[in-house]
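User: Fold this; tokens only.

Assistant: Input:
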Amino acid sequence: MSIRHLRNALLGAAVAATVAGCATTTSSTGRKQYVGAVSQQQLDQLGAQAFDQTKAQKPLTQDGRQSAYVRCVVDAIGAQLPEGQRRAWEEAVFVDKNPNAFALPGGKVGVYTGLFDVAKTQDQLAAVIGHEIGHVIERHHDERITRAYGAQAALTVAGVLAGSRYGDGAAQSVSQGGGVLLQTTFLLPGTRVQESEADIVGQRLMAQAGFDPRQAVDLWKNMIAATNGARPPEWLSTHPDPQSRIGELQKRADQLMPTYEQARDAGRKPRCG
């Protein structure tokens, strides 16, 4: 075997070893997922680091009522998570005019004060927080890291092979071009699927917690009105056509009304603000 063939075989084996460490699983909506490039402990650590970094970069609200409001909604949603996924969530309210929110592995939830101008009721805030927590419990961060990890491993091989044949300049070009391809072509289709899945899971969670699932529709209408046709905030930027989304939210709201009514009958009547 020539040196070049040996190098190719070793690189191929490295990629195969990376892929072997991953696994296929199924989300609660029945969608197949490719996960496992990093451990849950590593995901939680990454989430905690990102959360701490955000807290270091953005001012926190000094309004205790805002913090208590968000904590109340997070606790109500968190109580409805499947067994094994319930945990104590840490929340923070950041002073930022953008109507934004996020949740991270490790039990972290962040809300920007600008969201209160769009999510005008506790039910509408629950729609956002349920959506964001849905990303976490459906392992979307794990899924995206795994996909990126596999793609980057393949790009590394391509870069090394190009360099071995054409020189370092070619290797750098492959890596740079591959990075653009990774961002614009490989990851984005999955992102839209994940956002739609988070809508489904979040609306279900809010209904189970005793929040009115119809308010998810009103939230989106408020968001459209607030943006005046401009680009929506990052957490909504990959959703399908707004009118199509409203239709899907309305359809699910109708289906979830029995769940909501059962939650209320069982005494789950959040009074967050």
